[in-house]
Amino acid sequence: MPNSVLNSEKAIVVFSGGQDSTTCLFYAKRHFKEVELVTFNYGQRHNTEIEVASKIAKDQGLKHHILDMSLLSQLTPNALTKHDMKIETGEDGIPNTFVPARNLLFLSFAGALAYQVNAKHIITGVCETDFSGYPDCRDSFIKSMNVTLSLSMDRDFVIHTPLMWLDKTQTWELSDELGVLDYVRHNTLTCYNGIIGDGCGECPACKLRQRGLHQYLEQKGDASL
Ligand SMILES: [Zn+2]
């Protein structure tokens, strides 16, 4: 979309500083004139996640809202049943700090914020393709949430999910189309061990991310990996 037809309405991006939401940030900048970011602080695996998100927001000159969601830790399995349980990541890539309906809660807060800052559009990097294990990341849920948010505040919100039907390879392709593949590759944090960029290479998140990047670069005929 050429700059001349940028949508002048405001968009809020649900932003974690990871590959997916950073790609969404650039997607938002491409399509909307005014973009703000919201990050949820809920005791992430690494505090680095908040720092990475803040740095990217600053780099891009975007207003960044950080909302305290630490109450979510009261709903994790280790808080409810096993107080001394170690934070671990299962083979499926789902950490045992997972809170059911987390995305429902996040989108509710993003909606309340969007209302306050007068943003009609909410952009989130949820995706059915890679993480179909989370029911509140599915397209049917997002559509239902869109209706619910609009009814709850009597506003016409539009939730955008540019990554919904993309696999990791296609997400890299999108960042390349947006001209930010290198930026996304070197400045975002996906790794469960808190290593920015290409990460530790060993954890499930790194493996998924690298497999996608390899495939995309290979497909593009770029051997620079
Ligand atoms: Zn890793």
From TrEMBL:
Binds 1 zinc ion per subunit. Zn(2+) binds at residues 191, 200, 203, 206. ATP binds at residues 15-25. GO terms for molecular function: ATP binding; ligase activity, forming carbon-nitrogen bonds; zinc ion binding. It comes from the Bacteria. Gene3D superfamilies: HUPs (3.40.50.620). Its cofactor is Zn(2+). It catalyses: 7-carboxy-7-carbaguanine + NH4(+) + 2 ATP = 7-cyano-7-carbaguanine + 2 AMP + 2 diphosphate + 2 H(+). Its EC number is 6.3.4.20. Pfam families: QueC. One of its GO terms (biological process) is tRNA queuosine(34) biosynthetic process. Pathway: Purine metabolism; 7-cyano-7-deazaguanine biosynthesis. Keywords: ATP-binding, Ligase, Metal-binding, Nucleotide-binding, Queuosine biosynthesis, Zinc. Homodimer. Belongs to the QueC family. Catalyzes the ATP-dependent conversion of 7-carboxy-7-deazaguanine (CDG) to 7-cyano-7-deazaguanine (preQ(0)). This is 7-cyano-7-deazaguanine synthase.
